[in-house]
Amino acid sequence: MTLIHVPRPPKSAMDPNRPVNALLKTQIEHLYQAEKRLPIRYQSDTYVNAIKTEGEAANYIRQVTEAIHQAHEDAANRRAQAAKRKHQRAPSSLSRSRKANGGRKKTKKKAKARKRN
Q1: pLDDT in tens, 7-47
Q2: Global pTM?
Q3: Measured between alpha carbons, how far apart are the two ends of the chain, in Å?
Q4: Residues in contact with 96: Cβ distance below 8 Å, sequence separation at least 6, in sequence order
Q5: What's the mean pLDDT in 56-77?
Q6: Alpha helices in 1-117 (DSSP H)
Q7: How far is CA 46 from its chain centroid?
Q8: Which residues touch 112 (CB under 8 Å, ≥6 apart)?
Q9: C-beta of residue 20 within 8 angstroms of C-beta of residue 52
Q10: Domain ranges in the chain?
Q11: pLDDT attached to residue 19
Q12: 16: how many CB neighbours lie within 10 A of its CB?
């Protein structure tokens, strides 16, 4: 594989006090739409129309990106825990009454019939 050398951008490429340009405004709007779909606990309380500089935009982009990653990581952990709990429940863990009943649950009809007798 051929390596392609990419030169570093000059230090003047990022000025935190420079006003946001159209590209950054578009990125902020896309991230805002993505942020609205996150659960409330992951959302920032940033008013995106108040973002006026590249530094403010960078801070907002960092916050939302980290929140998205955290939400996905938390969801993956919850899925893994649920799968682990499901896997731990084995047919051998059936209650004694269910084992005696062939592993079947009692139905409401059978329970009502037993109450009548």
Answers
A1: 998 988 888 999 999 999 999 999 999 999 999 999 998 99
A2: 0.65
A3: 81
A4: none
A5: 95
A6: 22-36, 54-88, 96-100, 108-116
A7: 19
A8: none
A9: yes
A10: 16-103
A11: 95
A12: 11
